[in-house]
Write a structure and sequence with these properties.
It is a single chain. The protein is α+β, with helices and mostly antiparallel strands. It has a single domain, classed as Creatinase/methionine aminopeptidase superfamily (Creatine Amidinohydrolase). The chain has 2 helices and 8 strands. The protein has a two-stranded antiparallel sheet. It is globular, with a radius of gyration of 15 Å.
């Protein structure tokens, strides 16, 4: 793969009727700044995740990193979502969801930058 290429892998899983999908991307060299902003946003989420934290506060903190980098117009997606039997389900790591995190909750952290003219920059982690 050359540096001018980008790839996307969607890995479907099935385990006892549980089927999350893991999405992985490799970005082109010119997307390095965008990738790093998104990664910084994700690291802010990692620091904020703890029992008692509100989903909305985690999303706001992540989005602030992206907005401060001048990329706020590219926010089209919440920071994450619950993972369970439905795959994508509450709680939503979103400014509109004040759910308080509790031990045992499983959710994704996947801030994304969505550009209409270009490929998206997107990577996720499940917790």
């Amino acid at each position: 793969m050359s540096t001018a290429d980008a790839s996307l892998r969607i890995v479907p899983l099935l385990f006892r009727f549980y089927s999350p999908s893991l999405i992985h991307t490799a970005t082109r060299a010119q997307h390095k700044k965008r990738f790093n902003v998104q990664l910084k946003s994700k690291l802010v989420a990692f620091d904020a995740i703890k029992p008692g934290a509100k989903c909305s506060d985690i999303d706001r903190a992540c989005n602030k990193v992206i907005r401060d980098a001048g990329m706020g117009d590219w926010l089209k997606h919440h920071t994450g979502h619950g993972i369970g039997l439905q795959g994508h389900e509450p709680p939503w790591i979103d400014e509109g969801d004040d759910t308080v995190l509790q031990p045992g909750m499983v959710f994704s952290i996947e801030p994304g930058l969505f550009l209409k003219e270009e490929n998206l920059v997107y990577h996720n982690h499940e917790y």
